[in-house]
Specification:
The complex is a heterodimer of chains A (499) and B (301). With 499 residues, chain A is mainly alpha-helical. Chain A is built from 20 helices and two strands. Chain A has two domains: 283 residues, no CATH class; 208 residues, no CATH class. In chain A, β1 and β2 form a beta hairpin. Chain B folds into two domains: 75 residues; 191 residues, no CATH class. The longest helix of chain B has 41 residues. The radius of gyration of chain B is 31 Å and the shape is extended. Classes of the chains: A mainly alpha (499), B mainly alpha (301). Chains A and B meet through α1, β1, α5, α6 and α7 of A and α4, α5, α7 and α12 of B.
């Protein structure tokens, strides 16, 4: 076995170790440095792993966690898709933290900053584990870690608003975990396995013989329901705007850019590696997800139009974007899921930028977040203004930017299926118009000059080095995904074909 | 003024106001004069009531449907304990037949959770660590979540705690606490030999600590168990777990020998890493149990 194949294990363990040693560190500043070094190392390892896997012409392998082979011990699995996601997650994590660094140290009390970085490190380890795991119970354990850590980073700001938001988030999120747990318990009952590939063999047999057909349907339903509650698919999105809108900037970025995506990746893996896409299509689960995806695309955008609070608007836009991803999964075709995976990346590189720049813009107006207070704020922090504008245009679907490519692929994916084509294209068109209807006014508002000496306290903010680094890299990533999307799509395609 | 007001009524005026980020509802209120105010007061209440009633009905319907579906599913599941169940397959067979030989643990459950599937257990221990840390973020005393009144109340409670000792509780605690702690330690140390292990033993020992703290007060406990000890114990236990198991995972995946002897099954020093891991998990659980109690009652450890 090449040494590179150890990297998924190293990544997960490094992240957990960084979380565990953080209480020994002196203060929040040290903890932040340790986190940064760890995330950068994990990113580098994922990059090397991806490169070497693609050099082998798209290979995948399983990794034994311990001395016992798979159905007895735990197992990890890595392929191009997993390595790509790990690479993207580490990059986005680093940039999210950089973008909101100033707010972390302002919003969180000094004695509690260390705890915040413990949560960040363990959250990151759980995301990596959700990407790499090949065992449904391991997935559940890391979902638990993810849930607690995600709630804690919302709560860390410690204002009345965040406590209420955390409570709602916690209740919904635990409901999702509970349903997922019941799902895997029933699945174990009817297949006798926890390892993904072994369950798949059993599920294929069960589906062909028709034994335990009813429990199997319920299992697929419970798992899909649990994960869609946790990833805020449309009718279950009510917790999202509060949690994402009130948390500190870095937390909002991480929650929308990464935490939602971890569950979606797990759902894709479960659909492909556990239930197989044929069974999913037979049970029409994909149709249900498709429908709610479409509904979310419209409903999220409509709700975002009513919002005058910048962060809540961006949060409602996440609901719509999650709708896009579920629409892609729901198409049930190869191209649809490729588009969904690409949109996961596109959204992960765009939404955190929007949150980070929104935070920076509101910092120029004494942390007010209503649009009429933010008028002209882009002139006081030009980089943030440019970042917000580009992010908004990318979400609207402007060519050259990441959001355009995913819309293009969604549209192309729908062409294979005449039954879904009209729905997809109609809703895509409607949702693009709606996206423009709330993002463009926001952009116009921040670029509308105001007379100096108005009642609002105007504060010129010199963007810090970390913020500049984060926004510039986000911008580069957005253009890179929008122009050089071909290699990324190739990696996703080869990764999905190996699942 | 009149002009602006009428402009805001036209479609274009409303649109441009919206584009510029001005709040629309405020204008509406300003435009609509007083007469609508008394009328406005009633409908929301009625609407709210109707919504709550609807919500309750839907909640009940939803729960009944879920319960029905799950009951029907349970009915369709394989019966418990039958030989031809899907769950009695080669996985369980190997655990039962060669668990003792491969892990050296007489208690097969300990072998499963701390050797075969030790990665999951590492995750679970981290969940405990994470849970306590989140509670500390929320409840650890700081300037955001305490005020003068609460400080005064705590000081009063402290005086009461020191002055009026509860003799009955203390006498019984003196007898019980050592027994509970010893029993907890016994369960932890014999995790690989008999039913029990880190999780159950830790819960017992944690209960002992809680009893001590509630009968003698936190100050007496702080003599040997302060926040520093708490952090040191939890993190070093997790660190030991991570390092030893990381070593074992790495060697296992690369097919290298570990050089950790399994010992003779049944002896107290046997079964390789299981005993130290059990001790680590036990200490983590003890600290977590006590940590929750201390955080929720006093806001400090």
């Amino acid at each position: 076995m090449p040494f590179v194949y150890n990297f998924p294990f190293f990544s997960i363990f490094l992240a957990m170790l960084a979380g565990i040693i953080t209480p020994f560190l002196k203060n929040g500043k040290m903890a932040q440095r340790v986190s940064f070094v760890m995330i950068a190392l994990v990113g580098a390892m994922s990059g090397i792993l991806l490169f070497s896997l693609m050099q082998d012409g798209g290979a995948s392998y399983t990794y034994m966690m311990g001395h016992f082979p798979a159905p007895w011990g735990n197992e990890l699995r890595a392929g191009p898709l997993e390595a790509l996601m790990a690479l993207a997650f580490s990059l986005v994590m680093l940039l999210c933290l950089c973008g909101g660094l100033k707010d972390i140290f302002e919003d969180i009390l000094p004695e509690k900053q260390k705890f915040y970085f413990i949560m960040i490190n363990l959250l990151f380890s759980s995301l990596l584990a959700l990407v790499y795991t090949n065992d449904v119970f391991t997935a559940y354990v890391f979902i638990e870690i993810n849930t607690i850590a995600a709630c804690a980073i919302v709560m860390a700001k410690d204002s009345g608003e965040t406590i209420v938001a955390t409570l709602r988030y916690l209740i919904m999120s635990l409901l999702g975990s509970g349903l997922f747990l019941i799902g895997i318990i029933l699945l174990y009952g009817i297949t006798g396995h926890l390892l993904m590939s072994d369950i798949q063999n059993q599920v294929v047999q069960l589906a062909s013989t028709g034994r335990y057909a009813m429990p199997l349907t319920v299992v697929v339903g419970l798992i899909a329901l649990g994960l869609s509650i946790k990833s805020a698919l449309f009718p279950f999105h009510s917790w999202l705007p509060g949690a994402h809108g009130s948390a500190t900037t870095a937390s909002s970025s991480i929650l929308s850019g990464l935490v939602l995506k971890g569950y979606i990746i797990l759902l894709i893996k479960l659909f492909y590696r556990v239930f197989t896409i044929e069974v999913i299509r037979e049970l029409h689960v994909n149709n249900i997800l498709f429908f709610f995806g479409l509904a979310g695309m419209i409903a999220g955008s409509l709700r975002a139009m009513k919002e005058t609070h910048i962060k809540r608007m961006v949060a409602y836009s996440s609901v719509a974007q999650i709708g896009y991803i579920y629409m892609g999964i729901g198409m049930g075709t190869g191209l649809g899921v490729v588009a969904a995976c690409f949109h996961i990346l596109a959204h992960a590189f765009t939404k955190p930028m929007l949150f980070a720049t929104a935070g920076a813009l509101s910092a120029t107006r004494g942390h007010k977040k209503e649009f009429h207070d933010l008028k002209g704020s882009a002139y006081d922090n030009k980089l943030a203004g440019v970042g917000f504008t580009v992010g908004a245009l990318s979400m609207v679907g402007m060519p050259l930017l990441a959001g355009f490519v995913s819309k293009l692929y969604f549209a192309m994916g729908s062409l294979d299926e005449p039954g879904r084509m009209w729905w997809t294209l109609l809703v895509l068109a409607a949702s693009s118009v709606l996206n423009a209807l709330y993002y463009i006014p926001a952009v116009i508002a921040i670029w509308t000059p105001v007379k100096k000496g108005a009642d609002a306290p105007v504060q010129k903010v010199r963007p810090g080095l970390a913020f500049v680094f984060s926004v510039v890299l986000f911008l580069i990533a957005n253009f890179a995904l929008g122009v050089g999307f071909a290699p990324v799509i190739r990696v996703i395609e080869s990764g999905l074909s190996l699942l | 003024m009149n002009k602006i007001n009428s402009a805001s009524h036209t479609l274009w005026g409303r649109l441009s106001a919206w584009v510029e980020g001005d709040p629309l509802p405020r204008e509406k209120k300003a435009a609509a004069p007083a007469p609508s105010a008394p009328r406005e007061k009633k409908p929301p209440v009625k609407k709210m009531r109707r919504f709550i009633a609807f919500y309750r009905v839907m909640a009940v319907v939803f729960c009944v449907v879920i319960i029905g579906v799950l009951m029907a599913t349970v009915n369709a599941l394989p019966l418990f304990g039958r030989a031809d169940n899907p769950a009695s397959n080669e996985v369980v067979q190997r655990y039962v037949e060669s668990g003792l030989e491969e892990t050296g643990a007489v208690n097969i459950v300990a072998g499963m959770i701390l050797d075969y599937r030790a990665f999951d257990t590492f995750g679970e221990s981290s969940v405990l660590f994470l849970a306590v840390t989140s509670v500390m973020i929320l409840l650890l005393r700081d300037k955001n979540n305490t005020d003068r009144e609460e400080d005064l109340r705590t000081a009063r409670e402290l005086i009461v705690e020191n002055k009026s000792e509860d003799v009955i509780l203390q006498r019984i605690a003196v007898i019980l606490v050592p027994c509970i702690l010893l029993y907890g330690i016994y369960v932890i140390l014999n995790g690989h030999l008999s039913p029990g292990g880190g999780f159950s033993g830790g819960a017992i020992a944690g209960a002992g600590l809680i009893l001590y703290a509630s009968s003698f007060g936190m100050i007496r406990l702080h003599r040997f168990f302060s926040q520093k000890t708490f952090t040191a114990v939890t993190t070093s236990c997790l660190l030991v777990y991570a390092c030893s198991k990381g070593y074992s995972f790495f060697t296992g995946a690369n097919h290298l020998p570990t050089g950790i002897p399994l010992g003779t099954p049944g002896a107290i020093l046997s079964s390789g890493l299981i005993l130290p891991l059990d001790i680590c998990v036990g200490l983590i659980v003890t600290c977590t149990m006590y940590g929750f109690y201390a955080m929720f009652t006093k806001g400090e450890i």
